[in-house]
Specification:
The protein is an all-beta fold and 236 residues long. The protein folds into two domains: 125 residues, TolB, C-terminal domain (Neuraminidase); 103 residues, Beta Barrel (Thrombin, subunit H). Helix content is 0%, strand content 43%. A four-stranded antiparallel sheet has the order 1-2-3-4, with no helix packed on it. The chain has a four-stranded antiparallel sheet with strand order 5-6-7-8, with no helix packed on it. The protein is globular. The termini are close together.
């Protein structure tokens, strides 16, 4: 693993980052949304209308951004953000994650006390939502990623790993990539699946669609990866 650059923080705290396009990153810094040129330079403030925590790029410049109690949709940089109707905050909510499938469809994972996980998805940029079916044996926590199509879905948990080729209608089961830890997932352009524990060290890789994983970095040792994304050149 090679450190190629340090993300400028403007003296603030970076909590989320993604590739906006071939020339820029988009990041949450001090609860505001900034763009950062890949060529280097200072971040440019884009949005401070809400207290943002996480974001993900949906393609074509569209950005989905989370606050503590809502999901916002930004059609393109400079456009007015719109708050969606999805309810993500209840007294039982522990954490919320947002992902985007290969077709641009949005997926929101809501983890709630004591051991409940629900995945909501929207095919119309957040206007309406449905619940994605999960395997009956799926355990609390874990990651979500997509293969080459929106119907190829992978979810991980602390006890097992699951794969679907029909958008969640049926699932196959395999051992957990990192036992006792759900882990976040990344599907690479070459077909590899990466599982890592955000902030906890530990990274495993699968080259057979999740049937088995091989440890690459040991758990609870540096580097403590918070988030993995893959650039257009295949660099992590």
């Amino acid at each position: 693993m090679t450190r190629v650059a340090s993300l400028p923080t403007a003296g603030g705290n970076v909590t989320s980052v993604d590739f906006l396009d071939a020339s820029a990153l988009v990041a949450v810094i001090d609860a505001k949304i900034y763009t950062v040129p890949l060529s280097g330079g200072s971040p440019t403030l884009r949005y401070d209308n809400a207290t943002y925590t996480k974001l993900v790029v949906g393609g074509g410049g569209l950005v989905y951004a989370l606050t503590d109690d809502a999901l916002w949709v930004i059609p393109s940089m400079g456009a007015t953000p719109t708050k969606t109707s999805l309810t993500i905050k209840t007294p039982q909510t522990l954490n919320v994650y947002v992902s985007v499938g290969p077709n641009g469809q949005c997926y929101v994972r809501v983890l709630s006390y004591p051991t409940v996980i629900r995945i909501y998805t929207s095919a119309d940029k957040g206007a309406t939502w449905t619940t994605m079916p999960l395997p009956t044996s799926f355990s609390y926590g874990g990651g979500l990623c997509f293969g080459g199509s929106a119907s190829e879905i992978y979810v991980s948990g602390p006890l097992s790993f699951h794969a679907s080729t029909d958008a969640g209608a049926t699932w196959t089961n395999a051992p957990a990539p990192i036992p006792n830890y759900g882990g976040e997932l990344l599907y690479r352009a070459n077909g590899d699946i990466i599982c890592y524990v955000s902030g906890g060290g530990g990274l495993s890789a699968s080259r057979n669609k999740g049937a088995s994983f091989t440890d690459v970095l040991p758990f609870n040792r540096a580097p403590y990866v918070w988030k993995l994304i893959e650039g257009a050149d295949g660099m992590l």
